[in-house]
Write a structure and sequence with these properties.
Length: 508
């Protein structure tokens, strides 16, 4: 690895740590300040931090790798993600921003669910927080593993050292600066990812002689590479079920705590349309840039008769072959940015749940703001240590674990968030039933030996679909059978609807 590459990465690490220190010095020393940034994020920071925390290393490695192998048929997942993210901005963002503040200024999702339904038993909070803590610890570990493998493959560094470096830098700025540091670093990381995903496919295309020459080269390799209804890796046509399964990734957005928490933190309702336009523009360009990196990269590797051992490393290989070491280091920093932005968000959401939903709710109800911040920082460290421990163990199924966690969160929380925001009859009983049924169906669909046939519906249909449908059905049935009995629940919903129509709601 060239010296210039190390210089670029060193600058990147120093910048991330510097932002963490800045956030520490400017942040409110309160639970809301540390865990939610004091609800004063700007529209650009909200948009890019939501996007960067969403798009982990899989966008710079997984999406290009899928396009490299399967061709244009993999674009269906890109379409599904873009549509799901747009619906999240339209349906969830403004309503969650208002309702979480109206519901006793809720800071975490379990906090919101308990306050929404006046759940004095804390059962709903416990169920929701347990799901978040377990899934996110594993999810965080998968990101740390990805960082370890990046250092191992790109720098020849021992895997365990790569894990420690990745986790160490993320923990440092997250622990010190809290939510504001995470959001600001996500903004910078989102900008880096955006530039990289425009630069790489553009340079590859120019190296091949332009777009027409590139498409011709792909057609010469295999005409199926340019067909959206045919999987080039198998040569088989995609059926309706396969397309729906690929697009269903978009359903997961409604239930991802590390993404929708950004909507809770934005300054005011007026800023949400701006955030949506910025966020969706960033996402569309970045995702299609990632897709074209894989597709154009295949044409380049074929034309130059170069070889590649793992399709998911095509972005790394191209950055090393086509660019000056300083630029190559910047491009590798883009992968680290994607990995770190997601890890930091997941660390903070898990820390928030441990602090507010476990420590404050059950161990020290009268904890001061300063104590909550201290516990929050300690929780970041504890979760990071757990994630590192898992990362040091077996790690062959990283992408599979990410897929399962996405489905689990989407099915457990997605229908619950939507029904809570849109349905007056939503109750605590329905909420608990929705979380348990959604998560259970996903786990059964994935892990139970329901069928060994690779062509069965259990193998071809993404688990989020049956989980999402089951959770929705349980919520509706229980909400219909056991409607709200408390007038407080109805009054809170009325207050939320009233404030939702107040366009000046929130900080200016």
């Amino acid at each position: 690895m060239e010296f210039g590459t190390y210089i670029s990465l060193a600058i990147y690490f120093i910048a991330m740590l510097g932002i963490g220190l800045y956030a520490y010095r400017t942040n409110e020393e309160s639970a809301s300040g540390y865990l939610l940034g004091g609800r004063k994020l700007s529209a650009p920071v909200t948009a890019l931090s939501a996007g960067a925390s969403d798009m982990s290393g899989w966008m710079l490695m997984g999406v290009p790798g899928a396009m490299y192998l399967s061709g244009a048929s993999s674009l269906w997942i890109v379409f599904g993600l873009c549509f799901g993210a747009w619906l999240n901005y339209m349906l969830v963002a403004p309503r969650l921003r208002v309702f979480t503040e109206v519901a006793n200024d809720s800071i975490t999702l379990p906090d919101f669910f308990e306050n929404r339904f006046f759940d004095n038993t804390h059962v709903l909070r416990i169920v929701a927080s347990v799901v978040i803590i377990i899934f996110f610890t594993v999810y965080t570990s998968s990101g740390v593993v990805a960082g370890g493998k990046l250092f191992e493959s790109s720098f020849g560094l021992a895997y365990h050292w790569g894990v420690l470096i990745t986790a160490g830098v993320v923990v440092a700025y997250t622990l010190v600066g809290g939510f504001m540091a995470v959001s600001l670093t996500d903004f910078i990381q989102g900008c880096i990812m955006f530039i990289a995903l425009i630069l790489v496919p553009t340079v590859v295309m120019l190296e091949l002689g332009g777009i027409n020459a590139t498409l011709t080269a792909l057609s010469d390799i295999d005409p199926n590479l340019l067909k959206m209804f045919t999987d080039a890796s198998t040569g088989q046509s995609l059926g309706f079920l396969a397309i729906i399964s690929l697009m269903s990734w978009g359903l997961g957005y409604f239930g991802q705590p590390h993404i929708i928490v950004r909507f809770m933190a934005i300054g005011s309702l007026k800023q949400i349309p701006v955030a949506r336009r910025i966020g969706m523009s960033w996402m569309i360009v970045s995702l299609f840039g990632a897709a074209m990196t894989g597709l154009f990269g295949l044409a380049y590797m074929s034309e130059t008769t170069a070889s590649i051992d793992d399709s998911e490393t095509i972005f790394i290989v191209l950055s090393q072959i086509l660019f000056h070491p300083l630029i190559g280091g910047f491009l590798l920093a883009a992968i680290l940015a994607a990995i770190m932005s997601t890890i930091s968000s997941q660390l903070l959401v898990t820390s928030s749940s441990l602090t507010r939903d476990i420590y404050v709710s059950f161990l020290h109800k009268d904890a001061s703001e300063k104590t909550q911040v201290l516990v929050g920082r300690a929780s970041v460290l504890v979760v990071a240590i757990a994630a590192i421990t898992l990362a040091f163990g077996e790690n062959q199924t990283i992408l599979e674990l990410v897929s399962h966690a996405w489905a689990g969160f989407g099915a457990a929380f997605g229908p619950l968030v939507l029904f809570t925001l849109f349905w007056r009859n939503m109750t605590q009983c329905a909420a608990i039933g929705g979380i348990i049924s959604g998560a259970a169906v996903v786990l059964v669909w994935i892990y139970a030996p329901l069928s060994d046939d690779p062509n069965s519906i259990f193998k071809t249909l993404y688990a989020i679909i049956p989980g999402f449908l089951a959770s929705s059905a349980v919520i509706y049935v229980l909400g219909s059978i056991f409607p709200p009995k408390s007038e407080e629940i109805s009054k809170l919903y009325d207050e939320y609807k009233l404030q939702l129509n107040n366009k000046n709601f929130g900080n200016e």
